[in-house]
Amino acid sequence: MMTVFFRFYAELNDFLPEEKRFKAFAQEFKETVSSRGASSSRC
């Protein structure tokens, strides 16, 4: 399993649940994904 940390800025926060906006959060993946695939997956 791989853990990736994300932090989004400005208008991109509009697409996140309120508890994940304006701060870093971890997302776990069961298999290897590209950075583009990881950022467009369900958060």
Written overview of the protein:
- The structure is a single chain.
- The model has no long low-confidence stretch (mean pLDDT 83).
- This protein has one domain.
- It has one helix at residues 35-40; strands at 2-6, 25-29.
- It is built from one helix and two strands; from the N terminus they run ββα.
- The protein has a two-stranded antiparallel ribbon with strand order 1-2.
- The chain starts with a strand and ends with a helix.
Helix content: 10-25%
Rg, nearest Å: 10 Å
Shape: elongated
Q: What's the story with the biggest beta sheet? A: 2 strands, antiparallel
Number of helices: 1
What low-confidence regions span 5 or more consecutive residues with pLDDT below 50? none
The total number of structural domains is: 1
Mean pLDDT: 83
Q: What is the N-to-C order of secondary-structure elements (H for helix, E for strand)?
A: EEH
| Topology, number of strands | 2
Which structural class do the helices and strands define?
A: alpha+beta
Distance between the termini: 16 Å
Topology:
Layout: E1 2-6, E2 25-29, H1 35-40
Antiparallel strand pairs: 1-2
Which characteristics define this entry?
43 residues; elongated; 1 helix; two-stranded antiparallel ribbon; alpha+beta; single chain
Summarize the entry for a quick read.
It is built from one helix and two strands.
